[in-house]
Amino acid sequence: MNIHEYQAKELLRRYGVPVPEGRVAATVAEAVAASNQLPGPVRVVKAQIHAGGRGKAGGVRLCRDVTEVEAAAAAVLGSRLVTHQNGPDGTVVRKLWIEQGTEIADELYLAVVLDPARESLCVVASPSGGMDIEAVAAETPERIHVAFPDAAGKLWPHQAREILFACGLNARQVAAGTDIILKLYLLCLDTDATLAEINPLAVDAEGRLLALDAKMNFDDSALGRHPDIAELADPGEADAWELRSAELGISYVRLGGSIGTLVNGAGLAMATMDAIAQAGGEAANFLDAGGGADASRISAGFALMLSDPNVRGILVNIFGGILRCDIVAEGVVQAARELDLQLPLVVRMEGTNVDQARAILAESGLAIHTAVTMTEAAAMVVELTKEGMQ
Ligand code: GDP
Ligand code: MN
């Protein structure tokens, strides 16, 4: 789960990381009032959407007086901001963060992020802040500095100092930066954050360090033990598929391909995606209907998958254990009828009551293709989908 910059900055502030003063505003009048409450002449008006890259898209505006704040707020609020991160449809801006302006001397990059390969959080710092960190990593990897906690999960101050010196900071800034890194790391441990990114971490005109931007992501599966974090969710940011799948209790991730998959069990769902890729196709989604799925959840999952216009063929791959194959077959037949399914559908099932299930599919009179092995099923659906798209 992602949160907004203003929420992330509030968390940073609570942990003692220096952030500029600011206020949230949902209307132009609130933006003007917020602006009047802040010290100094300069304001930054910032669109609060979950995507990064707002600066280049016109979602971060420097204003010299309150009239400029008013104009910027009027222009940005309610507009659809399209950045390189949120796709062609963009995101409608519903809230602004009005911040006291900072005179920037230098911009660094700092993040604590989960490294799935090492199964550990790590600290990433770079003197090339303010820009796309992926581009920095690709073009000038020597400007990326990483530190891993020790085997007991402790991050040592000397590790933080080392990467900050490597970023070219002076001794006083390294001391302040070390404090920030250790606090950011503690924040991630406390909240099960998988990313806490400050880009830019600014050096201001007085040489002080300050978090000018903040982006955070939290492990969805851990939200149950962090109700204070869970309530920061913004349903306006989730796409229709995410909302619907969360309601249904289905794990669903929309992907770029054309073959819809409906599977029970996360491991089998990933194996199914691999099988499709090996057969030369590409999955349109990851869908784990869960071990405890019943016929209604299967048909709901079906409808969810079919609401994606990219889906041109379907592979149902179920291992019947607690969820019996005959129940799945009934769910599939019911969904195919109700939705008047015209797309090629391949069903592969194994496990409890598989024979009854095959009979249900065969007797349904629907054009359902069945396969015995996963490899066979994947080859079949890739072939049928290609034919259908020609
Ligand atoms: P992002 O584009 O979504 O990552 O939004 P940021 O919050 O990082 O803002 C983009 C850029 O705007 C930053 O890299 C800064 O260069 C600039 N910016 C943000 N806040 C300030 C500020 O207070 N003063 C100045 N001069 N520039 C700022
Ligand atoms: Mn940024």
The largest pleated sheet is described as: 6 strands, antiparallel
Which structural class is indicated by helix and strand composition?
Answer: alpha+beta
Output mean pLDDT: 94
Radius of gyration, rounded? Answer: 25 Å
Helical run tally:
13
Bound molecules: guanosine-5'-diphosphate, manganese (II) ion
Tally the beta strands: 18
Point out poorly predicted stretches: none
Distance between the termini: 39 Å
Overall 3D shape: elongated
**Helical percent range?**
25-40%
Classify the beta-strand content into a percent band.
15-25%
Please characterize this protein's 3D structure.
The protein is of the alpha+beta class and 390 residues long. The protein contains 13 helices and 18 strands. It has helices at 5-14, 28-37, 66-76, 133-139, 157-166, 171-191, 227-230, 240-248, 266-278, 295-306, 325-338, 354-363, 374-389, and strands at residues 22-25, 43-47, 60-63, 80-81, 91-92, 96-100, 104-115, 120-126, 145-147, 193-204, 209-211, 215-218, 251-254, 259-263, 285-288, 313-320, 345-351, 368-371. The strands form 5 sheets. Strands 7, 8, 9, 10, 11 and 12 form a 6-stranded antiparallel β-sheet that branches. A 4-stranded antiparallel β-sheet has the order 1-6-2-3, with helices on one face. It has a 4-stranded parallel β-sheet with strand order 14-16-17-18, sandwiched between helices. Strand 16 (313-320), helix 11 (325-338) and strand 17 (345-351) form a beta-alpha-beta unit. Helix 5 (157-166) packs across helix 6 and helix 9 crosses helix 13. The radius of gyration is 25 Å and the shape is elongated. The two termini are 39 Å apart. The structure holds guanosine-5'-diphosphate and manganese (II) ion (MN). The site of manganese (II) ion has 3 residues, from loops.
